[in-house]
Amino acid sequence: MPPESNTAIKLNYKVENPQPRPDLEARMLEMVNAERRQEGLKPLLADPDLAEVARAHSRDMFARSYFGHVSPEGQDLSHRLRRGKVRHLLAG
C-alpha cells in the first residue's frame, strides 16, 4: 500500500487487548536507520510521544479490524499527532 494511500484493508480478525512490543519497535527503527545510513542520512531517534500515538493507532486498527494509514472516519497521521499533542514540522 503506498504511503499516501487512503485505502484500508479489512482484516478478518480482531484483537481485544493487544500488547505493545517495544522489542519489535526497536528492531524496526534499527532497520530504518540501516537503510538511512546506506543513503548517507542521519539516523532517526525513538520518541516516546510518537510511539504512543502509533500504538494508539495500532490498537484502533486491531479493535476495528482494519489496516490503513487513515482511519475509517478519514483521520490521518496529522489528526493523530494533534490529538496526541505532538509538536512537529514534518511527519511521515
Outline the structure in words.
The protein is 45% helix and 4% strand. With 92 residues, it is mainly alpha-helical. It has a two-stranded antiparallel sheet with strand order 1-2. The model has no long low-confidence stretch (mean pLDDT 91).
Number of helices: 3
Helix proportion of residues, in percent?
40-55%
* Helix and strand pattern: EHHEH
Tally of extended strands?
A: 2
What would the average pLDDT be, to the nearest integer?
A: 91
> In angstroms, what separates the terminal alpha carbons?
14 Å
Largest sheet: 2 strands, antiparallel
Sheet with the most strands: spatial strand order = 1-2
Structural class: mainly alpha
The Rg value, from CA coordinates, equals 14 Å
Q: Low-confidence parts lasting 5 or more residues at pLDDT below 50?
A: none
What proportion strand?
under 5%
- Shape designation: globular
